[in-house]
Give the backbone structure.
Amino acid sequence: MSSVDYLIGSEEICHRPLKTFDEQACAMTADFSTALMADLQTKAMPDVLTLAFWCRKANISHLRESLPKGEHRLGRGLAFHIAPANIPVNFAFSYIFSVLAGNANLVRVPSRPFAQIPAVVRVLKSVLSDYPEIEKRTALVSYPADDAVTAAFCNRADVRIIWGGDATVTKIRAMKSKLRCQDICFPDRFSFAVLNGRAVAEAGETELQTLANDFYNDTFLMDQNACSSPQIIFWQNSSSLAKEKFWAAVESETVARYNLQATSVMDKFDQSCREAVELAGLVKHIQRHGNPIYRISLSDLPEEAENRLRGSCGYFYEFDLADFGVFRKLVTDKCQTVTYYGLDPQIIRNFVIDEGLKGVDRIVPVGSALDISLIWDGFDLIRSFSRLIDLTEKHRRDR
Amino acid sequence: MCFDLNSLAGTHPYGLAGKEKRALYRQALTELTRSHYQRCRAYQLIVEAYGHDPNQVWDPQEQPMLPVRLFKELELLSVPQKEVVKTMTSSGTSGQAVSKIFLDKENTRNQSLVLTRIINSFIGPKRLPLLILDTEMVKYDRKMYSARGAGIVGFSTFGLDTAYALDQNMNLDQNCLQAFVDKHAGSIVLLFGYTSIIWEYTLNEMEKAGLSFQLEDGLLFHIGGWKKLQDHAVNAAAFNEKVRSLFGRVRVHNYYGMAEQLGSVFVECERGNLHCSIYSDVIVRRPEDFSVQDFGQRGFLELLSLLPTSYPGHALLTEDEGEILGEDDCPCGRLGKYFKIHGRIKGAEIRGCSDTYEQR
């Protein structure tokens, strides 16, 4: 396997699991946080700072304490991670989650030239030198897409953590793995937002700006391509006042912050014209706010809406909500995150549970769509990555 | 009803100044938009979705435009299918979808009429001996009436005694070349072809074979961008120089046109500027909001043409980056806007979570 470049570690990676929230794992994570925040290069990278903030000591202690005392967990062994190719720091989150669960980790990092990757790897490498038990359980690799290499890694894995598109998940899952290997897959998902028009209409200037900033972070920050970025905006208590107010505020954010790519300008314009034809009868009108924002107002949802209504780089579908009934048809197991503004999220959760919907794993306020956490895609990641050692005390029968 | 091209028969193809041209285009494009709106359902849906009122008169920059890529994705036609006499397909990069352009009799006739008026303004009204720097075979591949074959057939109307520089296997036909040059020694001759094909199959091969000629007066018209040649660091100057070193005294005119708007081509003048004729116009739009860009600044190039009647292609947003250099004041004397193409708009890395098992 000469094509494999070991950025950290080697083929001789130790497979023996550690306790979940092992002392060294927690201390290393906290040190990693401090080092990322102190490093001149990484502290200037907003997405790396998010990672550093998540890894901070207080957060790790809190997470550790939230695991019930009587629950004795151990990592599963070797976790093989296929990280997403186009999100620079996701590989590091995936790695840290699994370190905390107690696993040894073999991580394939994206080979695209993101500045964040070498910087994060450099910091991690130096932190690991103080933690030999974690260091010998860590291998970060980079290699050109090669099924033979991937298959060999799959063979050794006790856990496979597969991020990315449906095609990747399908392909990797088809590769042979140990019978007890646990697969945690993150295929393509679909997300939407529910905004209360009345709340938007009543929002003051500061509130509106915060909302626009939060919405921007949910969407434009990842070119609206993150699984948790909303594609459809559902309006409760819809009014044109609320919509115009909202989009004007989002437009100001994009003008100030968004690096609009010429190719996405063409893609969106083309998509809008095509959909005016392909979704004939469903498109009420198309509005642009400059070229960053396209709004496709729908009078009804098409069949297979979760597959057909896919926006990117600022391409939103809008729909006026009479009640949640429309979600019965819309929501399939593809649906991941609902972001909300100005309404009680319990109502959405109750609807999902009462109606027995197969999708909606997360309900978070606007602004938190991209916040990664240990609960993701409906999985408790620490528990999924680890093994529970169940113990039953023998009860004395004689009394 | 619709704008009549005959009204321009008496006007020189480069003889309309800005003010008059704007008035003409305001009327003519409004009529074209209205006509396509009434006759093409898909176009109607787009115009309505964007809230454009076709019953009002609009300035050219206010006319609804279509992205040129849409012709690869949808079948857009403004005449009943039975009136289509020709379906033009763009050559397209291999593996990509091709544009389909539906032409009726009238549209076809207008395309060749306008091409004739434009080219004649450069070469005069007489037919000239013509050397096509390509193979005759593309003409006969009727499975797909491709833009390459159509271009050759279209240009052949300006020629006499047409000869082809390449044989059926795309190899240089040295005997044929020699015979053509000998036969027409001393007279003005016409050459025609596609930029990258000329470079690769004629110029490079002549050089390898040590073949060159000394034409006394030649006119080369060539179509196609510099995209393919840029990989070999070939620009217009290098191209023209090589043509002259291998063929002698040849005036070289590149021209820009797309399968989606055949006929109303943009020909490069003696100064190396691409010109709009009276049959076409260009608008450069700012990437941030599609507003009209200032002269001398780059942006998306929109092409306007008075010709498309059987398909809604009179206002197309291309994927090329352009820059208008000026209007009515090119030192070559032609009126109208003149401009420059800077190649395809650049691709970019878009972020997102899918597509993880990347290929390299």
User: Anything to note?
Assistant: Residues 163 and 180 of chain B are 7 Å apart (CA to CA). The longest strand of chain B covers residues 315-327. Chain B has a mean pLDDT of 89.
